[in-house]
UniProtKB/TrEMBL annotation:
<feature type="region of interest" description="Disordered">
    <location>
        <begin position="1"/>
        <end position="72"/>
    </location>
</feature>
<protein>
    <submittedName>
        <fullName>LADA_0A00320g1_1</fullName>
    </submittedName>
</protein>
<feature type="compositionally biased region" description="Basic residues">
    <location>
        <begin position="9"/>
        <end position="21"/>
    </location>
</feature>
<feature type="compositionally biased region" description="Basic and acidic residues">
    <location>
        <begin position="61"/>
        <end position="71"/>
    </location>
</feature>
Amino acid sequence: MNLGLDPKPRKHQVNRRRRGKGNSELKDSKSPSADDVDSKRPPHRKSNKNQVKSRPAKKVTSNEKIADVRRKGTTFAKTSMSTELKDQVQQVEHLLGVDGFKVFKKGKNSTSYGLAAPGVLGSDTFIFVVTIPFSYPRQPSKLDPVNNLAEGKREIQVELGHIVNNFNSKAHEMTSAGQPLISQFNYLLTQWSKMTSPNYKQKERLNKEFLANI
């Protein structure tokens, strides 16, 4: 019995659906997948913000070294005497007298004095030149080299050189220990003969070790 229903349209509809499904599959096949997109992206570069680049060490020139030494040398520079230094200088002037201790030369950061030393190396009165920086006691006093001796006194020149070097070392030690200028100059005037020896520092060290063991 034919009810007027033709099965062909159904087949047509099925084919249509399949064709539509095929189109969707074709469409899907053309669209790139997420993996394909990720594979085509350029690789991510890590930030170098936290990475410290090593730099070659800077070479210090000789001129820079000299400038650094000069800069350190002026660290303690002062242009006037402190109250403590004035008091100690006045004490020396009072005890040694005007002729025994007088101003020799005034500088920007220090003052040099002539210190009279009777009987030094056979002379009636020998004048040492001692320079006291305004930064004293942070920097010690020191004897200036003696270069004005007459020719033919080579031996005396050598002994004076020992006195200058040994006293400057002793003055540094005494200043660090808090001993005043008058004590330092009194040591020079009374112990200068010991300081003519080139082995003075070694003898001083042995003497200190001996006294420490008593």
